[in-house]
Amino acid sequence: MNNNLSHLSKIKKVRSRLMELSTPLGIIGFITVSIIVLMAIFAPWIVPHDPFVIDATKRLTPPAWIDGGSSTYILGTDHVGRDILSRLIYGSRVSLLVGILSVLIAGAIGLFLGLISGYFGGTLVDQAIMRIVDAMLAIPTLLLVLVAIVVFDPGLVTLILVIGLTSWAQYTRLVRGEVLSVKEREFVQSAKTLGASNTHIIRKHIIPNVLSSFIVVATIGIATAIMTESSLSFLGLGVQPPDITWGSMLNDGRNYIATSWWIATFPGLAITITVLAITFLGDWLRDILDPKLKKGGDEDDS
Amino acid sequence: MTFQFILNIVGLLVFVNFVKLYFLKQINLINSATYFLVNWGDFLGYLKRSMLQIIPSLLILTLIIFALVYVAGDPVSQMLPENATAEDRAILSESLGLDQPFHIQYFQYVGDLIRGDFGMSYQYQEPALELVTERLTATIALSLMAMLVAIFISIPLGILAAIKRNTIIDFLVSGVSVVGKAMPNFWIGIMLILFFAVTLPIFPVSGADTPLHFILPSITLGVALAAEMTRLVRASVLEVIEQEYVQTARSKGQKESIVIGKHVFLNSLIPIVTIIGLQFPQLIGGAIVVETVFAWPGIGRLLLTAIETSDMAVVQAIVFVIAIITILANMLTDIIYRVLDPKIKYN
Question: Which of A196, B148, B248, B306, by CA, is between 20 and 30 Å from B224?
Fold first, then answer.
């Protein structure tokens, strides 16, 4: 009965914790990200117009609420008459694809090297990995990506690979730090004394304890990758036409800024909203997964 | 020319740190300096260690870049006219040492770099490093201005948010800084052009001829840093406000403005100095994009043209220059930090 009671109180505790954790910003972030993901998945079925169709007669139509605007093109059209709203919806596909896949690549490399480096902390392997990390962190990621773009032809696949392969260093550093501290905890030490193999300890004890902060940082990493992607596409070195990205839409709009402000304004808003929503989601995940890091948190991580 | 380049960088770093020192000189600088001198031996040891750590990092960087160039394939076809014969190609490859195995080419490459030889630009027929140093000043000037913008925005806002903690003002400031970080800098640039160069023609759209040309680009580049720093200033001030000596000053009946200005602000500067130093390279990275928006004549535009024309020598020179600036900036920040805060030990 005692057992039952403690079980009940545990459920109560979890529920009250969930209530407490549902911050308004977290919920806004979660809902916005969900909408963007759904938009990306169902793009072909929800766009009001074909985003690729060029119609010179409709070019530079302003948004619906402005004189000369038409209600069929709610956010107006671009310099060759394509519907901006439809292109924005399609653009979310590239952003999310690049963001998620490149973080998967960078995260996998970072997790792997960070585990090795931390678990064998202080050895030559650790030293070597950390020197590579230092070298990678010594130059801005954008610059590394730009160099890699010279070598490989720009395009969606290149972009994902290049962003993934150049941004793993921060994950390595994070994971290594976490591993170094987890490694010293009692349960790992006792597993070691009991003769557990290295791979067993890493898989069963270290990874689960490292994962929560890793997930938080990786989520925010998606936002950073989306920023990098749009910067590159803006510079004309990212995803190439006819693929649609917010960055290249902005670049198109730049030349028409004096006459048709909407072409450049809306893609920028889309990037900002997406990055904001992912940041909110990341902060929320931090509150849920990593109570240690919670501001003024008094939760005991057990 | 290498000399000129080193002078540029050293001058810049001295300037940045001089500004920091100026702000910080009122915090027990004499005490700290004495401590620093007493521990000179420790400091030299520390310096030696960090120098030794830099060398492998730089070597790895050369390896990464060289590997990329190696993979990129041979520059011979770019250098010769379309109708060159196979024999011509072989002769040119041999003269460039491209027929050698990977490791021999790599050692040769590192040797060239040490001598300050980054190769010739195909595009300009000039030494690559020279091209870069010529344009470095414009980029660094822009980055420094952006840093000033960030300082002028973030310090007052951060202090305000900390003093008015958990009020609407605090939430507004935090909100603005979160949004500021989420906006892509090229978009900020275009929006600023739209509002302050097109709609209200106050500032020029592009170029770098007059001081007026600095304003929009440096705001554009500074916004993200300002957002980051505002949060830091707020946190840092909050931490100091809790300290005993601040409470003491208050209980002695000192005016609130003096308490904040003298005790809180000056003491919360140390972590801020660090973030300024560490963010400088990121600023230069951001400058590459912002320069494109405003047609700023710095290394950003040089880099983009070099990428478009596959001018590898120039690309490499730029990457190395930025890497070296980063490493030096980190080291100097570390040193200044140690001078200011004697609690940190050299190990």
Answer: B306
